[in-house]
Amino acid sequence: MKLSIKKILNNLTLLLTILTVILGLISFTAVSEYTSFEKIKNLQSQKKLITIISTLGREDLELSSIQYRGKSTTLHNDIAKLHKLFGYDLGGRFIFDHEKRYKNELDDLKAYATLYTDAVGEWYDESEENLDSREKAMLSAQVRLINQIDNIIEQNIGYEYDKFIIQEILIYLAFILSLGMALWYSRRFSHVYKDIQSLYAVDLDLNSYEILTHEVEAIAKRMNRKAVTSENPAMIDPVTQINNYKGMVQAYGNKKGIKDANFTGLCVFEIDHFKELDKRYPKEFTQAVLKKIAFMMTLHEQPSDVIARIDYCQFVVILSRPTKESALKDCETIRKSVEETGFKVPRAETLSLSLSGGYIVKPNNKTLDEAIAQAREILKTAQDNGRNRIAQLRDHAEKF
Asked: Which DSSP letter does residue 233 get?
């Protein structure tokens, strides 16, 4: 059963989305750790305040009363901050559903704090009556308040343990999913890469290679069929299976009136340094390169266009386009597609090739042969200026 590249990518997108959600939940619970740290810090601060308030002493009651009022206000403000901190604890509110229980604990804490500060206020009153009972009431309120703080700290540790369990599960799940994706998709992408590699490997016989993906199989079938429909062998180049010179003249004569309002762009392409390639590699390889480049040109062919091989390593592309710029742009696309394609040679290395081109907009008062001759002259300008480029008439004029 053949693979579908589209299906592979769609499934990969889905799995990456799931993995992103899992990592988001891990980050979400991890960030809530800061809120938990702030809660513990706040509660520890309250315990210190309680110790300070309880030990102010009665030696200087005026000073103790002033300090008591300030510390008591700070104590109540710290309790109010705990309410605000829980508002930022999204994990506790929406994942673990601790909101109701936590708020009840804070309400109890606030009540115990009020009882404690009232008792402390009685203890630091200037009256000398019932000092023992007032001290006992203060110490009793202090014990209840500290016990409530310790209870909240203990509950917070329990919440953190719940978060840790969730984080542990999510981390294991993310690891297993990542490992499974790596093993599963490495094999499939290996098949995809080999299929794509088979398309530009000019020494590989596509008929003998078993293609494993639907999309590459469709491209390979198109590559193997003829680029022209003429039944006359005299009009077809035997190597590339596109028009030869005679086929070009005939096809141009048949198509030139299809879109009279369009501009006719003509570009003569030549493969750079092809003579050196011809000397270095066997004839079968160089002919396969010619066939591959011819096919790449036909990928950009429109119904009103003509593509032909007119010399050993020269091609003519005649384009009918609404604007001069669009015709030149399509020629540049052909040049870039060849430049960006690797050609696998028999020794398994990858060869990079390029095209130089001479481009003109064919005037109506020039014959096709005259236009091709002029484009060939402009082609020399592109070659003289470093190759792998398309020269235009203005570039040729600047040369002189």
From this structure: G
